[in-house]
Structure to design on (862 residues):
């Protein structure tokens, strides 16, 4: 039996999971492989980690990642520290030293993927990153290999478990955002500073990775529109629910003729849409391909063992030599790709949910619908709720297909109307 | 750009789809590969196929598969004729002639997989079979590669689109079995002789393939329990629906300590189970892994282009050299595997739905529950419906966990009761 030596850098939750699988080799397929990934060394800045892990004595432990990077016995480096620095430098050095790389670092790949991929190609090494999106769901392999015969038309997904947990809790238990967030933090699903998750930034990183693979194009990450859930009102979730829609934070990629749509925002989905029943910390990604049609992959999008499952799958790919072939063949994240502009959010067309806080007197609907009509936004349905707050009533509307730019203009013009109080809320819809 | 020459044997619906993708190369990833699968020859017993296809002149067409098998330029043979013979001989010859094989033939793999895999290993060639289960869903790759770090605990799936279409139609439109089947046949979803699909045989073939990969063991295919949907009463679908359950034909594989459970039968699932909302010709497979937890893959399980999508993905794997590595590394379907007995259906434990046709008089429930109690079957809920047919009323029960053998004995004993008329129906439940 051949072995392939692994150096693990960053021994947090996921790192400990990876070590556990590599040391226990509990899987029947894993233990029968021709070439098995073997844990050789671990680096973590915290020296206490060594005692906590109860490592076998033949595994090198160091607080200095350089020790692993300089060790010629280590053939593949697993980067699990996250963030841009020093992850970037560690991966770069590993490649320069002739080591393959496995990473779960979505932020680094979204922002500097092309650079790192070019570097890996120059050194004849590979970067594997199944764990960067969807935790244990083999979404990268599916898009890149399983659906290779397809022109990918759309990728829709719930790719952030933290926000899905919060929205599920708000929807099911009628809990307001701040309380749901606090509970997520208590359970370890949300970080102390939840910004990356709740503002949709983490989702936009993952979307960038999926879109680069699925569409085989390059684009400017900065132009991905993202909007989080921190401003979500419980009442909108509930009015929309009554109208037959479930609220999810979606990452959406669509290929149009000349450009691509890439956006992350709270989105209303019909209750019977497969993504509507993806609850809690689960993730799911729908892919529409020209040959395969509609597909969905579902599973735990984060957490120790699901993510470790994906990291170890990558390590097996590297050990068997498949990762190198795949990386060489996959002409994404590189100069080989056509650069495509991301469509401006103003040009997006969707249906909208609108909630106005209006003064309850005759003529209000006429004024609002007049302005909407002026901007070619037609109304599909209207519900006036009785719930009265501070002298206003909520007026909820669903529109037909409309252009975002027109909606923005209409909403700006409506600010002049004295019958509208407070901020008007709107949500985008996908069918 | 390197090319890898493909010979396609069997030019039915799926074959035409494969040809279309290989000739059009519409996918951005496919067209940028280092080594591209190129359609070199087609064999079909029907000479008319040639004209129908409108093939480019440089593609060899023959009515004799041997011509492709003997052609040294052809490096990979795609077997798409289905059935046991001559598919078996074609694959065997292709391997002997030093060609790799791609097939969608689930029956052949279920019955003679180990034999064919040993043959391929002896000749240093590979057999790829992503299209054999779940159409375009990359389920084989997910189980074999994506979840390799896992001990697979359970595989549950809707793997037959024909029966799922029929059950969906019966459930949604309250149409009886024979009418739903006729509609499926009219739409081309069911064959003229639907036996393989409706009796659960096709599902058991697919289950055998999934279980061999997932559990990494070998077993006797003949011992897989299978039961189809041809005897399904619409009334049971509806009584169960009222109780909160959806009826699906499931293929179920579970690993227990000393053996495995492998069974195909109509199964009741709670409405909120992810498989309950898989409708029409869609397939979905849930996999529970020790690290990854619960996952589900969903998509079109059959049809021209979804299946062709999987075949072409396999061809790319072969062309790039990944298929050979994977096939060599994957110690399933072979003498390398532990042989494990399939648990006898009598030992299975599930909850049951029971429907008795009883005479409407006092003491009936006491008699029935007495016999159930004698065999350690306890009742979770009872509904007596008012609907009266031929002087009897339906008595519907849900049991707690019970052993199938005990249930069978109880039902046999109840045949002596004069208060029970007709055949007693029962359905197994999964949560």
């Amino acid at each position: 039996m051949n072995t392939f030596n692994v150096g693990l850098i960053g021994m947090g939750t996921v790192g400990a999971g990876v070590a556990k699988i590599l040391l226990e080799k509990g899987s029947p397929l894993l233990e029968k492989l021709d070439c098995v990934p073997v844990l050789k060394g671990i680096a973590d800045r915290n020296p206490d980690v060594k005692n906590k892990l109860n490592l076998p004595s033949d595994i090198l432990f160091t607080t200095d990642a350089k020790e692993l990077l300089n060790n010629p016995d280590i053939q593949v480096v697993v980067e699990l520290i996250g963030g841009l620095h020093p992850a970037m430098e560690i991966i770069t050095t590993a490649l320069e030293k002739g080591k393959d790389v496995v990473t779960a670092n979505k932020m680094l790949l979204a922002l500097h993927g092309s650079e790192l991929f070019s570097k890996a190609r120059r050194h004849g090494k590979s970067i594997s990153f199944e764990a960067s999106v969807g935790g244990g769901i083999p979404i990268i392999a599916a898009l890149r290999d399983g659906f290779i015969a397809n022109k990918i038309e759309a990728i829709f997904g719930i790719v952030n478990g933290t926000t899905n947990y919060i929205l599920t809790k708000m929807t099911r238990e009628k809990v307001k955002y701040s309380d749901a967030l606090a509970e997520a933090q208590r359970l370890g699903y949300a970080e102390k500073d939840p910004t990356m998750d709740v503002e949709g930034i983490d989702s936009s990183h993952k979307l960038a990775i999926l879109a680069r693979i699925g569409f085989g194009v390059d684009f400017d990450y900065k132009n991905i529109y993202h909007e989080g859930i921190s401003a979500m009102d419980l009442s909108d979730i509930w009015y929309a629910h009554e109208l037959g829609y479930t609220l999810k934070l979606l990452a959406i990629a669509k290929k149009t003729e000349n450009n691509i749509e890439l956006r992350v925002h709270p989105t209303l989905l019909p209750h019977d849409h497969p993504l509507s029943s993806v609850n809690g910390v689960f993730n799911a990604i729908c892919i529409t391909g020209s040959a395969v049609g509609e597909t969905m992959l579902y599973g735990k999008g984060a957490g120790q063992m699901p993510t470790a499952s994906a990291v170890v799958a990558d390590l097996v790919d590297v050990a068997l030599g498949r990762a190198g072939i795949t990386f060489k063949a996959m002409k994404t994240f590189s100069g080989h790709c056509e650069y495509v502009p991301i469509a401006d959010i103003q040009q997006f067309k969707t249906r909208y949910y609108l909630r106005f806080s209006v003064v309850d007197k005759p003529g209000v609907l006429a004024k609002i619908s007049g302005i909407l009509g002026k901007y070619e936004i037609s109304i599909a349905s209207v519900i006036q709720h009785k719930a009265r707050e501070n002298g206003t009533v909520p007026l909820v509307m669903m529109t037909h297909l409309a252009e975002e730019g027109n909606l923005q203009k209409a909403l700006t013009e409506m600010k002049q109307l004295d019958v509208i109080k407070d901020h008007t809320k709107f949500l985008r819809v996908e069918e």
